Amino acid sequence: MHEEANVIKAKLLVEIEKDRSSINEQIGRIKAELDAPAVTDDESRTQEQRYRKLALEYFLQKNEAAAVEIEEYIRVQLENASYSLALHLGPQGKRMFGPGSLFGSAPPTLFDALTYRYRFRNCRTLNFDPDLLQEIDFRFLSLPVHVYRENIDQIRKYYKDREVSDDYYEIAEWYINEFIIPRFLEAGRSDIHVASKGALAEHIIERFKQRDYISLSFILPPFIEGTFHDICQTLGLKESVNERAALNQLLQTIQKHTNAIGMEYLLFIMPIRRNRIAHGRELYASYREVAVSFMLDLDLLLDVAKHSELPLNGLLDVLRNPTAKKVKKIFTMKIEQHHCRLASDCRALGHWMNTDEFWSRLDRELMQTDVDTKETERFVCKLEYHSLLFGDADVAAQIKERGKAFLRHTLPAARQRLMVDAEKRARILELIKAKLGGHD
Prior knowledge:
The chain has 440 residues and is an all-alpha fold. It has 3 domains: 1-122; 144-308; 312-438, no CATH class. It is built from 20 helices and no strands. The protein has helices spanning 2-35, 47-76, 78-89, 145-160, 167-190, 198-209, 213-234, 239-244, 247-255, 263-268, 270-278, 287-305, 311-320, 324-327, 335-338, 343-353, 356-364, 368-373, 375-385, 393-438. Helix 1 (2-35) crosses helix 3 (78-89), helix 7 (213-234) crosses helix 9 (247-255) and helix 7 (213-234) runs parallel beside helix 12. It is globular, with a radius of gyration of 28 Å. The two termini are 34 Å apart.
């Protein structure tokens, strides 16, 4: 097995060296562009030049981090990965380059062992090359997968020829009507980050139906930026900072919490168009192109706004799809901070908390580790203290009474039940050991 592992390790190192070489080439290319003598000083740079520099600096850090991750992989995981793969493949190793996955039924492959992020790079979700950051790669993503794959190459051709043909805009406007507008309307009714702008969302849709590209070009940027401001507020960004923050700063704050698809496009491409509109500068594009681009940006905005990694969305999931297990985490999710936004959802949860079902579930799900760590006990104590978050004075009083009864009666009974169960399991184990010992 040692020999097979060494063979696999050597093959892994060949692949690793390819990735190292690719990263080093990109780092060298980025540094060369950053270090090239500037034609103009920083103050005289165009918007495109400034955002290109920001993108280069960002991708330089990303590639350098990828290089460090590979070295850490070699130091920590390579040996174990080689032995593990050798164990799965056996002495022949014939399927080393064939299809398969460590997580499926097929035998693992060489590539399953290479688990650092650079190995999974692609231009949309895990890109390391600033030159691959293209607007068209973040369009039409709500299409069914098979439809996207069958048509995206043709759409790319239409996009390339958009200055001489209307084909791209006709496809884009069809997509906006069929996919974005229904999502946008629903978000205007129910999305916690967009619902407060429901009337404006309807106005935007009406302007789009009228093909009022000029109005859309000026309405959409503040709508999009305002939504990012609202998201940052829920992330705890101080209001004084939030009010002064540029779009790029807002997006950097959001990216720390979620790396939703399109964040890098939103950071380095979309703001150029936004700034030209906001400052009344030459657009170098028709209002139709600008308006359609911003409408397509709504696709990404809505994805960011509903992303599960945003803390407020995690809290919303608990409130709207509660289970006893999830609800016990609610006081670690800053519910007090977000309560004003979620008052109606909190009242709905309070109604469930006032049912026998809720308290029975808490009891049934008590395990010894829970009792030892006092997770449920601490939750119930906090629930008593914060009961007014979940209803009016009468509801809060009922929750308190149920909480007190749980702590005084249900919890001690559960401790006794768990102790009896533990003793019973211990006796059974001793009997099994005695039986096995009798056969020696």
